[in-house]
Every structure is written in structure tokens, then in C-alpha cells.
């Protein structure tokens, strides 16, 4: 009991005589039966008591009043009974009253813990502590205790009479079985201490999926011994175990549903992975164990890939592998015990990129581990390739310079042939070959003179070497020759013809022939070999004449090389000679005749030969006087006189000329005409004195020159004169008379008659006709007359006889 409570009960006794006794406050428990006693002991009389509530709230209790005291009975305390109740007591006139506070509490049951028995390990779990019918909840505290250690508390105003206090908790496996307590306290005065606190404890149950799975036991066992593996795991509820063998092919074989896996007489096939599957309601977990069976190596294999039968140069890989049991080391060696490769582990390999014939041997694979070793062998057989080489074109190939040529070297029977192109001196060729697989080509594009030579295609296939060769001959004969002459050549001179063919090769096989039409006229000596292409020239010199004009001279160039296409063997060039010469063979022809009669027609034709054709002039020359009749440019002309006259007589000259000279031809044209226009002149006069001399001059137009006959008409005597001049000397009267001049040529005659009168001179005897004749002869010899006659003769060419001219 509280000391304060005691004091309130004792004080009124000590201080007042007529005192009213009533506890200041009381604490009632809900559901209890309680009494509240109000007493006044000192009053000698019967005390009157009245119970009232301080507020409006009814009291809900039954009073039972005696003389000195009254008792208020609370049959079934409820929360409604909480009240301030006043007890009034009257002792006679003396009135006393006291107030008491009735407090009600309720805390009937222990807290109830829920959620403690299925906590999930590692998860956040909520435990709940429920306290019901608590009143007044304002003075209520709740604590969670883990193993007597407060881990959570809540207090105060829950404002409901049933409260649920959660506790959030993430358990681990250690928490399993530990105590968890919910302690509730109602901290109100007047509550008996044993009623004040109520608590409930529970043991936590933590559930967990299997974990900490472990397999114990020796996983490496020797062949024939036994194997025990134990699977251990934690987990709540207690997990179940399943052992399974995981086969390499993926499927699995269940071996048993117990913790331990046990095997007798372990064989190699027992090696492998084993799985322990641990499971409970919350899940499962598995662990793999690799069991190794310790045994000397087995299944040691040596394999040659792709095969052990090989051709030289093939690539091969030799695999050495030991499966079945763990192997620490594998050693690959050849039969000569030369170690090729050592490898920690179960396998190794050696690759020979290009096998040689000498690789034909046995290879050994040996696997080791701590329990022993195993050895296997393989025989590698290397054969040479059946190499064959073909070179196209083969033999000899003749190539035109500038064309393209491909030498194709084809190797067969060898997967990776190596080509090498050489010349006969075993030197690399300067052309770059193009090699692709089993074909190597040497491309000449264009073919050059320097490419001439022998080409050897050598193919190496491992230890086999084969070669083929081809000789390349080059010729160059691309253009036709060109013939040039030394220029227009003058007849009689030497002329040079030059035949040039450019860029020929090989020069020693070329020949130059000179042809005149079809006839070979000269052959040039072949030149000696020259390493490059050269121009080939031949000079042909000849003496030319006008007859050589238009001669067709051909320069024929021949390539005497076997294999050259026929169309390329011969090339020719021709030239036509052009000879210059002065005119020659000039001829003038008159047609139909050169001797003509007046009035007849005549045609002249002039012909000459010259080169170049020059000029041709036809002219007539009479008495040294030249008259040009026709001038043309050329070598032939003609000229016609439709009707000739005596004037047309003369020398006709045809002269041809060019820059080199002239040449002419002439002919004489005569024109005949009967005498005409005859005139007779008599000197000094027709009347002369006896003894005097008379000169008779006859003029006539006539050709041929006429004969002139003078006759005295009365006499028989005729005097002939060739020039028409008669001198009658020492005339007598007997000479008087008529005279006739008869001018005659073969075409006709003409006569003139005249009279001479001689006057007699008495003294002198006149000269007779016969004297005259002598005189005439004498006269003919005189120098003066001679000049006259000559003149007349020259004039005769014109057909005139004009004495007057001579006399003047
Ligand atoms: C008291 O009252 C409560 C509710 O009013 C009732 O449940 C209970 O039975 C009563 N107790 C007695 C003894 O009458
Ligand atoms: C063990 O097994 C092998 C073959 O699996 C058998 O040959 C041998 O006899 C067995 N040993 C024992 C002791 O059973
Ligand atoms: C492990 O066991 C559980 C429960 O038996 C099962 O559901 C599960 O499939 C098993 N796992 C394997 C891989 O066998
Ligand atoms: C066990 O081995 C199997 C098969 O090799 C594989 O699928 C699985 O993931 C492994 N389990 C564990 C836990 O390593
Ligand atoms: C060139 O090749 C042909 C066929 O390819 C062959 O008949 C000929 O004999 C060969 N000539 C030489 C010289 O090798
Ligand atoms: C081979 O080639 C080398 C250099 O290219 C040259 O000097 C030699 O004369 C050549 N031999 C023949 C036979 O062509
Ligand atoms: C050609 O030359 C090579 C080296 O370039 C040499 O090995 C080989 O013996 C020579 N062959 C001849 C036939 O000289
Ligand atoms: C013809 O040639 C001669 C001598 O060669 C020369 O004297 C003469 O003048 C030439 N006549 C002409 C027309 O050229
Ligand atoms: C010739 O005489 C004729 C008349 O009879 C005349 O016409 C002509 O001119 C003369 N001729 C000459 C050349 O004298
Ligand atoms: C006539 O001629 C002769 C001879 O010439 C001469 O001797 C003579 O004197 C001449 N007579 C006259 C008269 O002149
Ligand atoms: C002239 O001479 C010729 C020949 O001599 C003759 O035939 C002719 O009769 C002569 N004439 C005359 C008129 O005498
Ligand atoms: C001089 C001369 O001879 N006189 C002759 C002339 O002619 C006559 C007759 O004929 C002659 O008798 C003369 O003698």
C-alpha cells in the first residue's frame, strides 16, 4: 500500500472529533465487486448519509446505510463507475461532507504474442503483442524484450482498450529458440503491484531455406577404393537431401535420398560431378562436387589432323590428349625421343605448317600423373607431290614488239607450288610475275626488245623441283619502209634512193632488196646484230637517163625469222623515178608536104620530149628574121596554114625549152607560084643612041625562079638570063624593034613586050647582036653586077626578083 494512501486514511482520525471517514480516492478493478464506506464514528446519534456525484454522472451503485456508516456497493465495476462521489453526513445539525475519487482500471489478461513461431530467417518479420481490455490506456506501457533486454517499448495513449504492439525483427539463425517477451504495465496508483505488470514470453522459431550446404569427404579417391561424401546443410525445417550424379551428356541419375553418398570399388566411370540437392519447404540449394578417381592415365590418344598420310608441304596438327583421369602432364615427342612439346594438363598439340619428307616418322604421346603414365604412338607418312609443270606457250614464241604476251606456268599436283622465273643464267627475270595459286604468269605488255631471251619457270614443291622453259623471240617490224629520192634528178646524173625502215629488230635478220618492177636490181648486205631496235637504211644509187622516167623502183624489206606471221614478213615501199632532162627529140612535121603550091593548105606539128615540160615555140625564119607563130607551154603543138602564099615560104623552127636547155628542129617550106606581076625596066631608056648600052631588068613574082628569055620578035635569037637582067651593049639601029621577055618557071610563064629604039650614029659601025652576047658575059663577071645578082638570089627565096632594089 502506498504511503500517501495511508496518510489520507489516518489524518481525519487524528485531527477531527466528529469526523467523517471516507477514502480520498479508491481504485477499482473492472469486474470486481467493491464497496465504498463512509463513516462518522463520533456522532452520538444516528447519522444521516447522502451519496451524491459531483457531476451529472449517475453513481451506478447501491448504498447500504447503517447508523454510523454507509456503504456504497459496486457490484460489477465498469468503466462508468469512475466518478467523483461526495458523501454527506449529518450528525444532528453538524454537516460534514467528504469527496472521494473513484478510479477504475482494467487489466485482466496477459499479453498475447503472435508471429513468433514462423519467422523467416533473414527477412523482416513483424511480431505482434496484443493486450486486450486495458483501461485506462493512457497509463499503459508495453515493452518487447529479447532475452530480458528491452528491444522496443511503446507507452501512452492507445485510446483503445485492445492494443497491438508490433515489433519488427529480422532474425538470423542464432535467434532460433531465443526468448522474446512482451511486458505490459499499467502505472496507476492504487493498483496492486501484482496486477500492475503482466508479461508473456515465447521462444522464437526461425525458419530458413537450406543454407551453409557443405559436402565433406574425400573427393579424390584411388581406383577401387570406396568413396563417402556427406552433405551437410542448415535449414529449418530440417532439410531433405538428394544425391544425383550429373552425367557429362547432361542427364542425371538420382542416387539416393540421404545425407551420405557411399560408393564401393570406385571405377573410372564414377569420376565426375555429383550434386547434393538440399531442400525444405522454404527452398532448395544444390552443391556440386567433382569426384576425381585417381588412376594412371587412361584413354591417351594421339591423333594427326587432318590425317596421318600426308603430302609434302601439307599442314598437320598432332593432338595428344588424355581423358578419363586427371593427367598432370602430356609430352609429345618423336621417335628419336626429341621432345616436341610438354604441357601441364591433359592435352597438347603440335602443328607442322609444312611437312617435309623427313617428317615421316612415329610420334609419341605420353601422359603422366602421379599414379603412372600412358603412351600412344602414331605414324606420320609424308609423300612427295606428283608435281607437273606446264609452260604455255612452250618451245619458242615469236612476239611482235608492242604486242602483249603472257607466259603461263601451270603447276599441277602440288597444293602450294612456289614459282620462280629465271633466265638461262639462273638470274631473276626483270618482269614481275603474277602468281595465283598454281598458276604463275609473266605478262609482257607490251613486249619489248629487251624481253628477248629464254624464260625458265621453275616450280618447287617441297623437295621436288621441276622447270620448263620457253624462248621468247622478239621482232620489231611495225612500219613500212619509206623510200626517199635525193630529189629531181637530171638525166645523166647519179641519183640516190634511200629506203629506211624504222625501229626494226633483230636487224641482222632483215634484208633490203631493190626491185625494178619485178626484177631485182640490188640487194643490201645484212647488218650485224645489234641489241636494240634500230632504223635500217639502204641507199641505192643509179645513173639515170630520160628513159628511166616513171620507172617503178621498189624497196622490199624482208624479215627472215622463223615464226613471224606471213603478213609481217615483207613490207615494201615504191617510188616512181622522176627524171628531169632538157628537151630532146624535137621534131617538126609539115603535112601534107613541104613543097607547096600557092593556095594549098599546110599543117605543122611540133613534138618534143622534155621533163618537166617547158615551152614550145613555133616560128618562121626568113632572111634571119624570126617570126613567132605559136607559143605554148608543153611539148606538143600544131599550126595550120589553110592556104599558103609565097610569103609563107621559109624555114619553120620548132624549139622546145625547159629549165635545163632547149632543142629545136626545123624544116623548109617552099611555095611554088607561076610568074606574075612581071615588070620590065629599061635603063637608061628605050630610046638610045647607037653604040650605047641598054640594061633590061625584068621583075617577076615567081617560084621557083623563072628562066627569063629575051627575044627580038623579028629574030630567031633568044637570050636567056637566070636573073632577069639583060645588058645590050653597043646597040645598032638594026637592034631597034619589039622585044619580048618570056618569064617562065615550071608552073607557067608570063611575057612582056617592049620596044627598043636605036638611033643611028653614022660614024660608028654599030655592034651586032652577037657582040651583045659577048658583052653580056663580060658584064656578068663585073664586081658591081655580081653584088646585084647575089642580092637577087637571096631575094629569090621570097620568090621576088626585084632589080630596082639592087640598083638603088
Ligand atoms: C458484470 O458485468 C459484465 C458486463 O456488464 C458481465 O459480463 C458480467 O457477467 C457481470 N458480472 C457479474 C458477476 O454479474
Ligand atoms: C572392382 O570392380 C572391378 C570392375 O569394376 C572388378 O573387376 C573388381 O573385381 C572389383 N573389386 C572388388 C574388390 O569388388
Ligand atoms: C531439388 O529438390 C527439390 C525438392 O525435392 C526439387 O523440387 C528440385 O527440383 C530438386 N532440384 C534438382 C536440380 O533436382
Ligand atoms: C552443378 O553442375 C551442373 C551441371 O554441370 C550445373 O548445371 C549446375 O549449375 C551446377 N550447380 C552449381 C551450384 O554449381
Ligand atoms: C608444247 O606443248 C604441246 C601440248 O601442250 C606438246 O604437244 C608439245 O610437245 C610441247 N612442245 C615442247 C617443245 O615442249
Ligand atoms: C640473265 O639475266 C641477267 C640479269 O638480268 C643478265 O645479265 C644475263 O645476261 C641473262 N642471261 C641470259 C642468258 O639471258
Ligand atoms: C640458281 O640460283 C639459285 C640461287 O639463286 C641456286 O640455289 C641454284 O643452285 C642455281 N642453279 C643453278 C643451276 O645454277
Ligand atoms: C637555145 O640554146 C642555145 C645554146 O644552148 C642558146 O644560145 C639559145 O639562146 C637558146 N635559145 C633559147 C630560145 O633559149
Ligand atoms: C601583081 O599585079 C596585080 C595586078 O596585076 C597586083 O594586084 C598585085 O599587087 C601585084 N603583085 C605584086 C607582088 O606586085
Ligand atoms: C658599052 O659598054 C662597053 C663595055 O662595058 C663599053 O666599053 C662602052 O664604052 C659602052 N658604050 C657606051 C656608049 O657607053
Ligand atoms: C615563052 O616560052 C615558053 C617556053 O619556053 C614557050 O612555051 C612559049 O610559047 C613562049 N611564049 C611566047 C609568046 O613566045
Ligand atoms: C652594020 C650592019 O650590019 N648593017 C646591016 C643592016 O642590015 C642591012 C640589011 O639587012 C645590011 O645590009 C647591013 O649591012
Automatic annotation (TrEMBL):
The chain crosses the membrane at residues 772-793. The keyword Secreted does not apply. The keyword Transmembrane applies. GO terms for molecular function: integrin binding. GO terms for cellular component: membrane. Pfam families: I-set, Ig_3. InterPro entries: ICAM_VCAM, Ig-like_dom, Ig-like_dom_sf, Ig-like_fold, Ig_I-set, Ig_sub, Ig_sub2, VCAM-1. GO terms for biological process: cell-cell adhesion; lymphangiogenesis. It comes from the Eukaryota. Residues 1-17 form the signal peptide. Residues 12-103, 108-201, 210-294, 296-381, 402-473, 481-578, 583-670, 675-757 form the Ig-like domain. Gene3D superfamilies: Immunoglobulins. Keywords: Membrane, Signal, Transmembrane, Transmembrane helix. This is Vascular cell adhesion protein 1b precursor.
Amino acid at each position: 500500500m502506498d504511503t500517501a494512501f495511508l496518510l489520507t486514511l489516518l489524518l481525519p482520525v487524528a485531527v477531527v472529533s466528529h469526523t467523517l471517514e471516507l477514502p480520498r480516492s479508491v481504485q477499482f478493478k473492472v469486474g470486481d465487486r467493491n464497496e465504498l464506506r463512509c463513516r462518522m464514528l463520533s456522532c452520538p446519534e444516528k447519522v444521516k448519509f447522502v451519496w451524491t456525484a459531483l457531476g451529472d454522472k449517475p453513481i451506478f451503485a447501491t448504498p447500504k446505510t447503517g447508523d454510523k456508516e454507509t456503504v456504497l456497493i459496486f457490484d460489477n465495476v465498469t468503466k462508468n463507475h469512475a466518478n467523483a462521489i461526495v458523501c454527506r453526513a449529518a450528525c444532528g445539525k453538524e454537516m460534514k461532507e467528504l469527496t472521494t475519487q473513484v478510479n477504475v482500471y482494467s487489466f485482466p489478461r496477459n499479453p498475447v504474442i503472435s508471429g513468433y513461431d514462423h519467422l523467416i530467417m533473414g527477412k523482416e518479420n513483424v511480431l505482434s503483442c496484443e493486450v486486450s481490455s486495458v483501461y485506462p490506456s493512457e497509463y499503459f506501457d508495453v515493452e518487447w524484450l529479447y532475452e530480458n533486454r528491452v528491444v522496443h517499448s511503446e507507452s501512452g495513449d492507445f485510446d483503445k482498450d485492445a492494443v497491438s504492439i508490433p515489433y519488427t525483427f529480422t532474425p538470423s539463425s542464432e535467434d532460433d529458440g531465443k526468448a522474446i517477451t512482451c511486458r505490459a504495465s499499467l502505472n496507476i496508483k492504487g493498483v496492486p503491484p501484482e496486477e500492475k505488470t503482466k508479461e508473456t514470453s515465447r521462444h522464437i522459431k526461425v525458419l530458413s531455406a537450406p543454407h551453409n550446404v557443405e559436402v565433406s569427404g574425400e573427393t579424390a579417391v584411388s581406383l577401387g577404393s570406396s568413396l563417402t561424401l556427406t552433405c551437410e546443410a542448415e535449414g529449418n525445417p530440417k532439410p531433405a537431401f538428394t544425391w544425383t550424379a550429373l552425367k557429362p551428356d547432361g542427364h542425371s541419375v538420382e542416387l539416393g535420398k540421404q545425407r551420405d553418398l557411399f560408393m564401393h570399388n570406385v571405377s573410372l566411370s564414377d569420376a565426375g560431378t555429383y550434386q547434393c540437392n538440399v531442400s525444405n519447404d522454404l527452398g532448395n540449394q544444390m552443391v556440386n562436387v567433382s569426384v576425381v578417381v585417381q588412376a594412371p592415365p587412361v584413354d591417351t590418344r594421339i591423333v594427326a589432323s587432318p590425317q596421318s598420310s600426308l603430302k609434302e608441304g601439307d599442314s598437320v596438327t598432332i593432338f595428344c590428349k588424355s581423358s578419363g583421369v586427371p593427367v598432370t602432364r602430356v609430352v609429345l615427342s618423336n621417335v628419336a625421343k626429341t621432345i616436341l612439346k610438354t604441357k601441364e594438363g591433359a592435352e597438347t598439340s603440335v602443328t607442322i605448317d609444312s611437312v617435309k619428307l623427313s617428317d615421316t616418322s612415329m610420334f609419341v604421346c605420353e601422359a603422366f600423373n602421379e599414379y603412372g603414365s600412358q603412351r600412344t604412338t602414331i605414324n606420320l607418312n609424308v609423300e612427295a607431290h606428283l608435281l607437273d609443270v606446264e609452260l604455255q606457250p612452250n618451245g619458242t614464241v615469236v612476239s611482235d614488239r608492242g604486242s602483249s604476251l603472257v607466259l603461263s606456268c601451270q603447276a599441277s599436283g602440288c597444293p602450294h607450288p612456289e614459282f620462280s622465273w629465271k633466265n638461262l643464267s639462273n638470274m631473276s627475270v626483270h618482269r614481275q610475275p603474277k602468281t595465283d595459286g598454281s598458276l604463275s604468269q609473266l605478262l609482257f605488255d607490251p613486249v619489248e626488245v629487251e624481253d628477248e631471251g629464254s624464260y625458265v619457270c621453275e616450280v618447287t614443291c617441297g623437295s621436288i623441283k621441276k622447270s620448263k622453259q620457253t624462248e621468247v623471240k622478239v621482232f620489231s617490224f611495225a612500219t613500212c619502209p619509206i623510200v626517199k629520192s635525193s630529189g629531181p634528178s637530171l638525166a645523166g646524173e647519179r641519183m640516190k634512193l634511200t629506203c629506211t625502215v624504222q625501229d626494226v629488230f633483230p636487224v641482222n635478220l632483215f634484208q633490203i632488196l631493190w626491185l625494178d618492177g619485178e626484177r631485182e636490181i640490188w640487194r643490201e648486205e645484212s647488218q650485224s646484230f645489234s641489241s636494240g631496235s634500230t632504223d635500217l637504211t639502204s641507199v641505192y644509187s643509179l645513173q639515170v637517163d630520160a628513159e628511166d622516167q616513171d620507172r617503178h623502183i621498189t624497196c622490199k624489206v624482208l624479215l627472215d625469222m622463223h615464226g613471224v606471221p606471213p603478213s609481217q614478213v615483207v613490207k615494201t615501199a615504191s617510188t616512181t623515178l622522176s627524171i628531169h632532162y632538157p628537151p630532146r627529140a624535137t621534131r617538126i612535121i609539115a603535112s601534107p608536104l613541104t613543097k607547096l603550091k600557092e593556095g594549098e593548105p599546110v599543117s605543122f606539128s611540133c613534138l618534143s620530149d622534155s621533163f618537166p615540160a617547158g615551152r614550145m615555140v613555133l616560128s618562121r625564119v626568113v632572111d634571119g628574121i624570126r617570126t613567132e607563130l605559136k607559143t605554148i607551154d608543153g611539148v606538143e603543138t600544131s599550126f595550120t596554114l589553110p592556104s599558103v602564099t609565097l610569103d609563107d615560104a621559109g624555114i619553120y623552127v620548132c624549139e622546145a625549152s625547159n629549165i635545163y636547155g632547149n632543142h629545136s628542129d626545123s624544116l623548109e617550106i617552099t611555095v611554088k607560084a607561076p610568074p606574075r606581076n612581071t615588070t620590065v625596066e629599061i635603063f637608061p631608056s628605050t630610046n638610045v643612041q647607037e653604040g650605047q648600052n641598054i640594061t633590061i631588068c625584068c621583075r617577076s613574082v615567081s617560084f621557083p625562079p623563072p628562066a627569063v628569055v629575051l627575044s627580038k620578035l623579028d629574030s630567031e635569037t633568044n637570050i636567056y638570063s637566070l636573073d632577069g637582067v639583060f645588058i645590050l651593049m653597043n646597040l645598032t639601029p638594026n637592034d631597034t624593034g619589039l622585044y619580048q621577055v618570056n618569064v617562065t618557071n615550071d608552073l607557067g610563064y608570063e611575057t612582056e613586050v617592049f620596044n627598043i629604039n636605036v638611033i643611028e650614029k653614022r660614024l660608028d659601025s654599030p655592034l651586032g647582036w652577037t657582040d651583045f652576047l659577048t658583052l653580056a658575059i663580060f658584064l656578068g663577071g663585073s664586081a658591081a653586077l655580081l653584088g646585084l645578082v647575089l642580092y637577087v638570089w637571096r631575094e629569090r627565096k621570097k620568090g621576088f626578083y626585084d632589080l630596082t632594089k639592087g640598083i638603088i
